[in-house]
Amino acid sequence: MRITFYFILFMLIITGVSSCSKGDLIKDPAFGSISISDFTSKKVTVIEGENNQLPVLGETVSLLSGNNRFRFYDDKTLLLDTSLKIEPFKKHKYFILRPNNQSVLRVFDDSLNGFNQETFPTAGSVKISLANFSKSLPDKVNVYITTTTYRAPATEEIKVGEILKVSGSFSGFKTMLTGKDQFLKPIKEFTLTIKDSNDQAVLFTVPLVLPVETATVYLLYLEDKTGVTKPDIRATLLMSK
User: Fold this and answer.
1) What CATH class does 31-109 carry?
2) CA 110, 223, 105, 60: dihedral to nearest 10 degrees?
3) Cα 52 off chain centre by
4) Closest Cα to residue 103, out of 148, 42, 147, 184?
5) What pLDDT was estimated at residue 3?
6) Domain ranges for the chain
7) DSSP SS3 for 20
8) Strand order in the sheet with 61-64
9) Over its length of 241 residues, how does the chain's per-residue pLDDT go in tens digits?
10) Cα dihedral 46, 240, 42, 193 in deg (nearest 10)
11) What CA–CA distances, in Å, run from 130 to 57, 86, 112, 155, 192?
12) pLDDT score recorded for residue 194
């Protein structure tokens, strides 16, 4: 009787261990989330996997984790076929950039130009990195940045920074002061004076508004305005923190 008892107990233990082992092999699929912000001159369609069209660019969607296939289309023209990593239980932000129809579509995240590792400036300052993606500008331009500040009894214009030889690659981050209004709040309006890097001829003057209340580090680029009768330039904010 005792031998039979121990035999039955042994078999129950073996069965339990076996069941647990088999159960460990069955895992729920891990999901992560992704958002893709569109900075292209024409809106792009994104297909994930075989035929999963992302509904609205910029919104967060949940996808099975792993190196997922993504295809980017301008109408029916394939611009890029690549893989993007979806990490389990994490949200990852990607950006797509194609300033004009002659440019190659680029996909990147906040590691671009070391943005995610760039330190914050001291109070009363901002940091700016700038690139030139305009076809109306020379390959390299000098950019001089001014703003206004209040010095009783009036507001005056002050130069706060310059970024020289701005090209198609993002510049290093430059620290510059922000102006103050009469209530000592930071001024968010700036002016970019763009000059030829060879003869210093003024090419364009561009207004710029930065969200200085919520961010102090910025990635910006110069691009051509669309839908205008003569060449014009604007500064576009790509990322901020």
Assistant:
1) mainly beta
2) 50
3) 23
4) 42
5) 54
6) 31-109, 113-240
7) helix
8) 61-64, 31-40, 91-98, 106-108
9) 545 544 444 454 555 545 444 455 556 679 999 999 998 877 789 999 888 888 778 889 999 999 999 999 988 899 999 999 999 999 999 999 988 777 889 999 999 999 999 999 999 999 999 999 999 999 999 999 999 999 989 999 999 999 999 999 999 999 999 999 989 999 999 999 999 999 999 999 999 999 999 999 999 999 998 877 888 999 999 999 9
10) -160
11) 24, 29, 12, 27, 11
12) 99
CATH architecture of structural domain 113-240: Sandwich (2.60)
In the numeric block, which tokens belong to residue 1?
Answer: 């009787």
Instruction: Report the distance separating Cα 218 and Cα 121, nearest Å.
Output: 11
Measured CA to CA, the distance from residue 232 to residue 229 in angstroms comes to: 9
The residue type at 221: Y
Q: Which two tokens stand for residue 65?
A: 């984790």
CA end-to-end span of the chain: 75
Are 227 and 103 in contact by the 8 Å Cβ rule? The answer is: no
- The pLDDT of residue 14: 54
Task: Find out whether 85 and 67 touch, Cβ atoms under 8 Å.
Answer: yes
Q: Which phi and psi (to 5°) does residue 217 adopt?
A: -125, 130
**Residue at 153: amino acid letter:** P
Q: Please give the structure tokens belonging to residue 210.
A: 């930065």
pLDDT of residue 9: 44
Rounded to two decimals, the pTM is: 0.81
Spacing of C-alpha 128 from chain mean position:
14
- Those residues whose C-beta lies under 8 Å from the C-beta of residue 207, and which sit 6 or more positions away, are 189, 190, 191, 192
Q: Which helix (H) or strand (E) holds 13?
A: helix 2-24
